[in-house]
UniProtKB/TrEMBL annotation:
Keywords (A to Z) from UniProt: DNA-binding, Transcription, Transcription regulation
Keyword Calcium among record annotations: no
CDD domains: WHTH_GntR
The protein's name: DNA-binding transcriptional regulator, GntR family
Length: 329
């Protein structure tokens, strides 16, 4: 089973679950006799069952929970079990805490899922089974759904008939179409954004880019993703024309494919000049020359398109579809 996300400097998941249940009992929002089951609690906390099981064992050792003739544990102090549908109000835990747990857990597994979906998209249209995805990582359905919603925003899955999740196929024609969309709109969006781009935001982007160029090729997927986000998302976000930005949201799959294809094909960034191309765009922006920055961005996109097509062909020559238990025909 996958390790539970705890986050840097955060208390273990089981301890946070313990605190929430204990607080509910102490405040009386979780009544005596209430039955606690691992599955519903894991779903509520967007967690795997392992920390829930550990939390229940801890609370039982404290005498706050007790066993009875049936499944689960019940809150001590009652003669008979009380079966109710648990909510966050019973546990006296706020929506913010639940959302934080969900986001951290979903983010922990997202890159791996994104990579598998992207790899399979190169071979056609397949279904992603949400329940199987949750079981694969030992998490609740809510976490699996958060992962797939994030993938949907990236344009690599879509919700189809009977509420099933489907992988959006990525072939050469679609890749070229996505780049054409970007080539038409990104330079326009960048020129419009330039006048509204705060100097401190641009400075942070410049610093991250400089650090990355100094550390080539020792860059992880998350760092490469941030560098792409800096130029192709964060800079463009200051474009006042929201219609352009919404249209560009459809092209995210081309960025994702480039990131993972480079890693899968084991090409080091030393063979890829994209950071130099990013640097040219950022340099023109810093000089207050948005037209030149837009030209540099267009040049970068044209080069990236042809590299993407080349990598797609190489992938098909070298690899075939591999089985993943949550992706089905």
């Amino acid at each position: 089973m996958a390790a539970e996300a705890t986050g840097t400097g955060r208390r273990p998941a089981y301890a946070r679950i313990c605190d929430a249940v204990r607080t509910g009992i102490e405040r009386g929002t979780l009544p005596a006799g209430a039955v606690l089951l691992e599955g519903p609690l894991a779903e509520l906390f967007n967690s795997s069952r392992s920390p829930v099981k550990q939390a229940l064992a801890q609370l039982e050792s404290e005498g706050l929970l007790s066993r009875f003739q049936g499944r689960g544990l019940m809150v001590s102090g009652a003669d008979r079990p009380l079966r109710l549908e648990l909510t966050q109000e019973h546990l006296a835990i706020g929506e913010e805490a639940l959302a934080d747990e969900r986001t951290n857990t979903a983010d922990l597994y997202y890159y791996e899922v994104e990579r598998e979906i992207l790899k399979r998209s190169l071979f056609g249209r397949f279904r992603v089974n949400e329940l199987a995805l949750a079981r694969h990582y030992g998490v609740g359905r809510t976490v699996a759904r958060e992962i797939l919603l994030k993938a949907q925003l990236a344009g690599i899955v879509t919700k189809g008939e009977k509420a099933h999740w489907w992988i959006v196929p990525l072939n050469e024609e679609r890749l070229r179409n996505l780049y054409q969309l970007r080539e038409l709109l990104e330079p326009v969006a960048l020129q419009a954004a330039a006048a509204h781009l705060p100097a401190d935001v641009l400075d942070d982007i410049r610093k991250r880019l400089d650090r990355a160029m100094q550390r080539f090729p020792d860059l992880g997927i998350a760092e490469l993703d941030q560098l792409e986000k800096d130029l192709h998302t964060d800079c463009l976000a200051f474009c006042p024309n929201r219609e352009i930005l919404e249209a560009l949201g459809r092209s995210r799959a081309s960025i994702i494919s480039g990131k993972h294809m480079q890693s899968i094909l084991m090409r080091t960034p030393r063979t890829d000049a994209f950071l130099d191309e990013h640097s040219a765009v950022v340099t023109w922006l810093a000089k207050g020359r948005p037209a030149e920055a837009a030209d540099a961005l267009l040049n970068h996109l044209v080069i990236s398109r042809e590299k993407g097509v080349e990598r797609l062909a190489e992938f098909h020559r070298r690899f075939s579809a591999t089985a993943v238990d949550y992706i089905v025909d």
